[in-house]
Structures are given as structure tokens and as C-alpha cells.
From TrEMBL:
Name by which UniProt lists this protein: gamma-glutamyl-gamma-aminobutyrate hydrolase
Function per UniProt: Involved in the breakdown of putrescine via hydrolysis of the gamma-glutamyl linkage of gamma-glutamyl-gamma-aminobutyrate.
DNA-binding as UniProt keyword: no
Keyword hit for Transferase: yes
Alphabetized Pfam families for the sequence: Peptidase_C26
One cellular component (GO) term of this entry: cytosol
Record-linked InterPro entries: Class_I_gatase-like, Peptidase_C26, PuuD-like
Sorted UniProt keywords: Glutamine amidotransferase, Transferase
Length: 252
């Protein structure tokens, strides 16, 4: 069988006077090496893109993390300067993309901002600046110029017994990195909590009764995919889902 194709969502970045549609290399490498699939960056061209035509030709969607935040207007709150930066073109692309991928049963793996987008796309809400909420810990990255330090393992997570994540990772406790200041609030339609941090922050979700594989983490397995067991297993499981979808899609 030829390799499966995975759409990878893109940030819009102004560089050298141009707008670039970009995805961080660690996500692309993780799809390539961890899922054994070909990553294809989907530009954030919003309503100009025929998403169904794009989804017709692929076997999975990876929704990436980003420093930008989902615009709160998309879940009924007011945007503020402190809550930014925003990326309206990314929002205008990823929200309908994720909704449509889920409806069609295209396998989805959503990471950090990607998990927040999935939640909002399915009607959920987000909490912001969670480090300022009583009882919550600081989930932001340590301030450092070194990415290894920023992506260092930060806290344990508790996996829901009998859930989809437990099927992928087993019941052994493990620890994750943490680079976010927002978190899921009200859950989107059909989402189930798959892991929690000690302070109650939702760390992973899946979609119950979904026609396809849908898993999302608030942490970043892409960063340690070659060295960390749970990170490796998450991308391998996504790879299995996209291969199974491809066989079905192509009638193999
Ligand atoms: N902006 C949101 C989403 C967090 C996220 O995707 N973080 C990745 C950032 C990578 C980096 O800092 O280099 C939030 O803050 O919750």
C-alpha cells in the first residue's frame, strides 16, 4: 500500500513582508516518522478552500499547537488584547475542517491549540489564563531560549480507566510536557475526557460514537516522538488509524 496522506494545519505568520502558511517541523517529522505517513500542510485559506475536496484525498488530519489563541467570539466571549495573539485565518480554516473531518470519519489527532479548536468546533468553550484560576497550576512553558527546556516533562496525568487513551497507552501513569495558558471549559458535543492533570485541567479527549478515530491531547507528544514511549505510541496509533482509513477509502 502507498503511504497515507495527513493534512497538517497551518499558522499564518508575517515574515519578510509576506504572509506564510506554516507548520512547525516537529509536527511534520512526527507524522512522517511516528505515524509513517506523508504530512501535507493545508494552508489557512478559510472559506476559499473547498475542504471536502481536500478531505476526499487524504487519510487523516493533524491539528497542531500554536501560541495564538482561538478567537473567543467563536465560543461566545469577547476578545481582548491580553488574550491574543489571534490567527483569524487559521480559525476560519481549522474550525470547519475539524468539524467536517469528524463528520466524515477522517481520523483526527489534535494537539494543544488543535485540541482547543476541536472543542470549540464541536460547540465547547475555553478557559483562559488558567494559572490565575484558584486551584489551578501554571501550565505555561518555562521561560527559556532552549526548546528542550520549554518542552520538558512537567507534570503527571491521570488517564480515564477503560477509555480510548488507556487502550493506546495502557494504564501505567506517565508525565507530559505543558505549554499552554488556556484549557477546555465546557466540553464540545460528544467529547469524553480521556486524561486529567492533578489540578483538574483536561489533558486529553476523544469523541465517543464517532465514525472515525478522534483523539486530542493538551500536551505535545510530537516533540518527544522518537524518545518517549507514550509519545511514540500516540503517533503510532494515529498511523494505524490513517492506514485503516486509507484501505477503506481506496477499497484495498
Ligand atoms: N495558545 C493556546 C494553545 C497552546 C499551544 O498550542 N501551545 C503550543 C505553543 C508552542 C510554543 O510555545 O512554542 C494556549 O496558550 O492555551
Amino acid at each position: 500500500m502507498t503511504k497515507p496522506l495527513v493534512l497538517v494545519t497551518a499558522d499564518v505568520k508575517a515574515v519578510d513582508g509576506y504572509n506564510w502558511h506554516a507548520a512547525v517541523s516537529t509536527y511534520l517529522q512526527a507524522v512522517l516518522k511516528g505515524s509513517d505517513a506523508i504530512p501535507m500542510i493545508l494552508p489557512s485559506l478559510g472559506p476559499d478552500l473547498d475542504l471536502d475536496a481536500a478531505l476526499d484525498q487524504v487519510d487523516g488530519v493533524l491539528a497542531t499547537g500554536s501560541r495564538s489563541n482561538v478567537n473567543p467570539q467563536l465560543y461566545g466571549r469577547e476578545p481582548t488584547e491580553e488574550n491574543g495573539p489571534y490567527d483569524p485565518d487559521r480559525d476560519a480554516t481549522t474550525m470547519p475542517l475539524l468539524k467536517r473531518a469528524v463528520e466524515r470519519g477522517v481520523p483526527v489527532f489534535a494537539i494543544c491549540r488543535g485540541m482547543q479548536e476541536l472543542n470549540v468546533a464541536l460547540g465547547g468553550t475555553l478557559l483562559t489564563e488558567i494559572q490565575a484560576i484558584e486551584g489551578r497550576k501554571d501550565h505555561r512553558a518555562p521561560v527559556s531560549e532552549h526548546q528542550e527546556e520549554r518542552f520538558r516533562i512537567a507534570h503527571p496525568v491521570e488517564v480515564t480507566a477503560g477509555g480510548s487513551l488507556e487502550k493506546v497507552l495502557g494504564a501505567e501513569p506517565f508525565e507530559v510536557n505543558s505549554l499552554h495558558r488556556q484549557a477546555l471549559g465546557d466540553l464540545g458535543n460528544g467529547l469524553t475526557i480521556e486524561a486529567l492533570a492533578e489540578d483538574g485541567t483536561i489533558e486529553a479527549v476523544s469523541l465517543t460514537d464517532s465514525p472515525g478515530y478522534v483523539l486530542a491531547t493538551q500536551w505535545h507528544p510530537e516533540y518527544w516522538v522518537t524518545t518517549d514511549g507514550p509519545s511514540k505510541r500516540l503517533f503510532a496509533a494515529f498511523g494505524e488509524a490513517v492506514r485503516a482509513y486509507r484501505e477503506k477509502r481506496l477499497g484495498l
